[in-house]
Every structure is written in structure tokens, then in C-alpha cells.
Amino acid sequence: MKKVNKDIKYKRTNLKRFITIGLCTVISGAGIIHTTETFAESAPTNGEFATYHLLEKIETIDTIEQPNIADNGQYATAKWVGDYYLKQDGKLALNQWIEDHGNWYYLKSDGKFAHDEWIADYYLNTDGRLASNQWIEMDNTWYYIKEDGRLASNQWVKQDGHWYYINEKGTYEANQWMGDYYLTSTGALALNQWIQDPNTNEWYYIGSDGLIARNTTIDGYQLADDGTIMPDLSVLENKVNQTVYNGQCYGLTAFYVDSLHGPKLMGSGHMRAETIGSDYDWASYGFEVINNPTYDQIKAGDIIQWKANTRLAPGYYGHTGIIRGKSNGQLLTYEQNAGRGQICYKYTRDFIQQDVKSIVRKIM
């Protein structure tokens, strides 16, 4: 900003297209001067100069370093002059969007292009171009801008060959499930890789379609129908058709718990299969207990307890076994002292939730 004198002389050849009574823009060799004052033209004092008198005193003016004058003395149109843009009519673009060579820019009230900031729902890059199909970082948070320049929200987007889920705030989700899909720490959809669920600590293998691999073997690991890694049940498989410990159902479960370095069940003084889940300090051995489990909660490797006086356990003690899998709403088990007598044997059981007291699971 600077002061100007009341009378200013300009070359008439440069001004004849721009200075008329009532205009608010004056062109000089110093640049474009714009003000709210009104100028009046006097008669030329010679063939080269005309004098313009201010009808009112100008307190301040704004200047632009480059004049709106082409080499031939005509005013420039539809072009950039430094950080400013001159429209088709030669006027300075103010408070508006303009398109230049396929890119959109916003010219602010001072005539300069906006950059590194939001204008309404749109973000302008450092060079002033409207952001499109790209990530932007603000306050250490990454946001995704769609093709139309607006912030993405509540949708999947693909960038550089990876899929991301953008939440309602415009940021990507990470380290969590989105339906059947898992988003990694970078936010990218997991593909062809092992991931560990941060909530359950379970490992899953995600295939090329982004879905959990199930009922198959990956890298030597057998995956259950829920995608979790099945425990090594070979210790029980090797005992099929054999009597284990005392031949009772309790004895088979005690043998399996011993193989997992859990509490000693045999000789503990406890005898009821129904109360195995509450008779021992399972947590101190790295196990968890789930009482009254649903079918979906039961997994291969779980130790299951049936209540006393139910179809599988008509007597006082209840019944116990080990889950080897699930199929069509049924449980696949290893049990002892059941229909085949006092030997370890494989059974298929209907799941009746009210008959199941608890399951015990090794988690550490």
C-alpha cells in the first residue's frame, strides 16, 4: 500500500483502452492500480501525455508488479500475471473460480490464487490447482480428495492399486475389520497376507479377493471354518480308540489340558465335568472361560462342558470333551466314556445351547 499524488501523468498510448470516467482501474508502468475513486480526463497538454485529475483524494492503492499491458499496447486477457489472473475482458479475477488448461483455481478477494487451504468443500494444492484423486495431509491426518475435488466420505476408494475405506470424517480406517475385509496399519485393504486381529489376537490369512481363507491349509497351517488357525489336535488324534488316563470323560480332558501345560485336573479333588470351567484358575495358565457359549463362539481346540441331567449327561457329573471342528450347526468332538465306551473316539453332536455349561480355551 502507498500514497499517491493528486495529479498523475500517464502515457496516453497505454491508457486509452483503460482510463475513462468512472472506472476504478488505472494502468501505469508501475502496474495495475485499483481503487474505489473516480478519475476525470482533461485535455492533453501535448501529443504524448494526458493529465488525469482525481475527483476525490485517494488514501491508498493496491499495486500488482506486472502491468496489464501487452507489447502492442493492448490489454492482456485470459492469462496469469504473477499470482493473479486476468479474465477474458482483461479484468482481474476476484472471489471466483477460473479454469485454466484443464485445472481449476480460486482467486481470492485480493486477486491472488488460493493454495494449501480449503475453499468451501474444496482443497487447493500448493500450486493453486484444485486437488483431485489424491491424498492430502493436514495436522498429521491424511484425507482423500475425489475426482470432483470434494472430500471422500463413507466409501471405498482405490489409489495406486490399493483399496482404502474412507470414513465420515474423510480419513482412512486402519487396523480394523470393515465387514469381511481387513484394513492394515497403512489403511490399505489386506491382500495375500497374514494379519493378526488386534482385538482377539487371532491370526487370519487374507486371500487375493480380500476375504478370510477358511477350511484350507496355508503355509502349513490348517484353517478352521471361521478362518482361525486350528490348534494341533494330533495329540488326541493319536489316542483315538485308546483308553486315556482313567477311561472317563474327565480323564481325556485332563490329558489334553496336560498337553497344553494347564492345571492338573487328575488328582485335584474335583470330579464333576460340569464344573471344570469354574473349578480351576484357568487365567493363570493362559486360558479363558466362556460360560453359556453360542454356537458361533465355539472353536476347534475348545474344551466343552455339558450340564448334568441333560441328553448327553443324564447323571450328576455332567460330561466333557474337546472340539475338533464344526459343521452345519453341529459340533465335531473327541470324547471318552460316551457311546463307544471308555476309549477316545470322534463324535458328531447336535448343538443345544441350553445344555452347554462352558468352554475353556487356550489363548496364551
From TrEMBL:
Cell wall-binding repeats lie at residues 94-113, 153-172. Keywords: Repeat. This is Putative cell wall binding repeat-containing protein. SUPFAM superfamilies: Cell wall binding repeat (SSF69360), Cysteine proteinases (SSF54001). Residues 224-364 form the Peptidase C51 domain. InterPro entries: Cell_wall/Cho-bd_repeat, CHAP_dom, Papain-like_cys_pep_sf. It holds the Pfam family Choline_bind_2.
